[in-house]
Structure formats: C-alpha cells, structure tokens
Amino acid sequence: MVEPRKQMRGDAMRSLLPMVKYSNNAVPAELRHLISLRASFLNDCKACIATHRRDARGDGMEEARILAAEDWTSHEDEFADDERAVLALTDAVTHIDGYASVPDEVWDAAVSHFGEGGTLNLLVSICAINTFNRVSIATRTDPEGVKGTTAFDLDFER
C-alpha cells in the first residue's frame, strides 16, 4: 500500500460539504447509495468504497446488492428501470470526456424517471461522490482508517 498523504481538513474540507448536504436532502438514500457505490468502484477509491459499503449496510442494504451495484452492468436484471437510469447516468458522468460522454438517451432516461429537477439533483450527488473520490485518491486516504467498517467493507478483491 502507498503511504497516505496529509488529509484535507478544516475550511478546505468544509467547502465540499454543501454538495453533500444538498444531495442528502434532495436524493433518496437508496439512490445515493447506488451512486456512491458505483462511482467509488469505477474510480477505484478504496476509502470511499469502504465508507459507502458501511453506510449502505447501515441503511439495510444487503451485501449482495452492494456488490451488484458496484458492478451493475453484470447484474442489470437485479435493478429496476429507474435504478438502471441512475447507474447509467453515474457511469456517464464519472467517465466524462467531453459533451458526448453523457448521451441523450442516458440523460433522457433519467429525466423520464425523475424529471429535469430530479435529474439535476442526481447530478449533484454524482458530482459530490466523484469529488470525494478524487480527494481521497489524491491524499491516499487509508481505507483501514474508516471507522465502523467490517471485513466485507475492506475486501476489495471481490
């Protein structure tokens, strides 16, 4: 494992929190879990994977569903249409590389389930987790330091 770097604290960290607060109020927990699990998995952010596995389990999500969300394209039939729309939007925004990155059909699928405003709320949630993934990766946050995790949360070889 690589050595952790100085962690972001104080005003720098607090500057990121309004997005999380907004997302917590605007997006249902189940959808936030799907977004956080998938984006963290795509970005290979081990600290965030551990954190969001822990949080999802704490809200009653079963371990099999957590793993399915992380690799949802291999488990599409386990998710409802609206959940697949959220996961597809998460993939597109997380892998962003120019305007073509979020195809109309992905955006339109989200809008058909959540409306324009709801889709923009999902976008805030996706942006928030991607920001935290990048901070944790850049600072090499140690997943072992995430409080309340279990062996499941820290098993990245699944």
UniProtKB/TrEMBL annotation:
One of its GO terms (molecular function) is peroxiredoxin activity. Gene3D superfamilies: AhpD-like. Residues 21-89 form the Carboxymuconolactone decarboxylase-like domain. InterPro entries: AhpD-like (IPR029032), AhpD_core (IPR004675), CMD-like (IPR003779). It comes from the Bacteria. NCBIfam families: ahpD_dom. This is 4-carboxymuconolactone decarboxylase. It comes from Corynebacterium ureicelerivorans.
